[in-house]
Amino acid sequence: MVLQTGASGGxxxxxxxxxxxxxxxxxxxxxxxxxxxxxxxxxKVTAERLSKKYSGSQAYQLxxxxxxxxxxxxxHALINQRGLPGELELIVKDLWALRLxxxxxxxxxxxxxxxxxxxxxSSQTEWxxxxxxxxxxxxxxxxxxxxxxxAVALCYLGTLxxxxxxxxxxxxxxxxxxxxxxxxxxRFVPQDMKERLPxxxxxxxxxxNVPTGDQLHRAVADLADLYSRDFGVTFPRINLPLLLxxxxxxxxxxxxxxxxxxxxKELSGFExxxxxxxxxxxxxxxxxVQLMSLVIIAxxxxxxxxxxxxxxxxxxxPAAQIIDWEAWVETQKEFDLRGKNTERLTRxxxxxxxxxxxxxxxxxxxxxxxxxxxxMWIDTKKGTNPxxxxxxxxxxxxxxxxxxxxxxxDDDGPEISKKLHKMLSRMKMRRVVADAxxxxxxxxVARPGSSL
Length: 452
Known about the structure:
- By secondary structure, the protein is mainly alpha-helical.
- Helices cover 45% and strands 4% of the residues.
């Protein structure tokens, strides 16, 4: 405390606190009485914050770079995880280079602004006509740009050029199992890229649903038509023998289907390649649809689904065997639900889990599902909140009494073989009625392939 004498008021003595500011003593005056508790806030000069997001043509260029990175990720996964040859990367690279050339040739960058020069724009500006024009620019660019599903289609066309027996069904199953990165692709985009991309591009690079078989077939057909029309690329027909054998095995059908399909192929005139004729899209022109349709027709001719008894004339007739179709349906259902009926969740079954399955799931299955969810949907970016470490989003490493084994990474080959052996063991033989015995019968005998 210090004794101070006011400059006015007759020298009234008072005790006031001693304030030291930078080593100097401040003496309060009598005129300042009653102002000790007043707080004066100085108005801060609002600094204009510049956004990191790109706009205009540079934003579109960055989008293409991010898309190319994701395309490489998918191609790299096919080579290193699925064992496809390394030449696939070179083929996909050449196909993508042709697509890029076409994109740059028709570039119509009508969007120009002063902000584009520095690639930064003020966060304090209102939504103006310029912002609306930029949004329309990006939407127009995206309408002609490749989609994420086109990257999978491009990899498929690469396998087609290399004559690798990979079907659309394989590609879809690998997407579900996350062997091919597709869902939440933004997790593979570097953070610096994501911060500079406009929001309209984030939605394109972040698909949240598994594509259906029809969508994949349509994407492949459209892309094959684009390369054929614009660049004169001719794609060969699918690897028919190996794909046909794969279809028969996966459907657990007898091998007698193979020669029947070969004969039907000659009668149908199918070419099993993507049509190069312009016109309306027709699913019958899809190569794998053509092949599968012949498999169904052959199975119906040799092993009908009705209750009519048809008798072959010899044991060499492929239709001498009988398929129990009710048992086939039950076996197929067991195969489709194999991931949910085991102690651990099979890869690819996580995305099929809904709220009705939670009550029947074991603790190990719940842990598998939460691990998958954490990997797919939770951002791994380190938070700035100091209390975030107290609430961990991933599994805590603890010493468990019964540690859970890692999920099985093997393919479905053993399960498919098991299903095939189970069905073949249930097949029965039809009684043979020779042509000589038909004459002695009073009623006509229905033969395999007939409608009666």
